[in-house]
């Protein structure tokens, strides 16, 4: 309610398996790529896991975006 979420629509969506194939595909792709939790970022092929302060993430993006994959 605080974020203006339609609770009924959200409940129906969560009870539905309409998007299950897409969710399973994404989950399997993440597992195959080595994702073990969230958040996980890939910067030029480098996996970065965990909650990272914005300034540190910006430095990592700068560093890895200039490196060869």
The chain-level structural class is: mainly alpha
Strand order, largest beta sheet:
1-2
Write the H/E string, N to C: HHEEH
How many separate helices?
3
Main beta-sheet annotation: 2 strands, antiparallel
Helix fraction by DSSP (H/I, runs of at least 4)? 40-55%
Number of domains: 1
Beta percentage is 5-15%
Low-confidence segments, ≥5 residues, pLDDT <50?
none
Number of strands: 2
Globally, the shape reads flat
Mean pLDDT metric: 91
Summarize the structure.
With 69 residues, the protein is mainly alpha-helical. The protein is built from three helices and two strands. It has one domain (7-65).
Describe this structure in words.
With 69 residues, the chain is mostly helical. The protein has 3 helices and 2 strands; from the N terminus they run ααββα. A two-stranded antiparallel ribbon has the order 1-2.
């Amino acid at each position: 309610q605080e974020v203006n979420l339609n609770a009924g629509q959200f409940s129906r969506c969560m009870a539905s398996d309409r998007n299950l194939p897409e969710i399973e595909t994404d989950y399997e792709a993440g597992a195959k790529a080595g994702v073990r939790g969230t958040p996980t970022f890939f910067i030029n092929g480098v996996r970065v896991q965990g909650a990272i302060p914005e300034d540190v993430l910006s430095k990592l993006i700068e560093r890895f975006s200039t490196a060869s994959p």
